[in-house]
Amino acid sequence: IIKLFICREIICCCSAKIRENNRMLAQTLEQGLKSEAEYRDMRARELTQAVDIASMRFDNRAAAGYLKERMELDTANVDWTMDYAAFIRDYLGHYEEAMALYRNLLRKSSDVHLTARLHSSIGNVYESDGRYDDALNSYLTSVGLKESASVSGKSLASGYLAVASMYVRKSIPMLKAILRRLRKYTRNVRI
What we know:
Order of helices and strands: HHHHHHHH
Number of strands: 0
Distance between the termini: 58 Å
């Protein structure tokens, strides 16, 4: 009951913030926009708050809709596109759409760091879809790009962790087969 009360209070607080943003937006429109960028930034903040509220209500479809609308405000904003793609991958299971978004960004990318990040995200889509060989290849590409760009620290470590995770996932079926054979063998052997 306490958790429900706290969630209700948080939602009410966020709803009040959205109402305040809407009031500010109306004022800005009345006074005349100083620039299209100001409107876009204000609308993006409003949509981000709407995503938070929808997520608290476990309404993933609404949250995805708000993220998509934010992404469409500025198609050149890579982070907004990646946020939307990750959300639909993780919460809606829309692997093909997420993959298409990542590949589109990859075609446009000339930055090594972004390209490595995109390959890692593509690996996440493959892993979520159970395509572990493809995920491993994407993770290895990402790690290779990070190494060539002299990236170190947490980013490189997470890449190595993803690669290790894929090797473990790939080895599990083989280990299960070995255990089955071992059980069969040990049934016939007395110690």
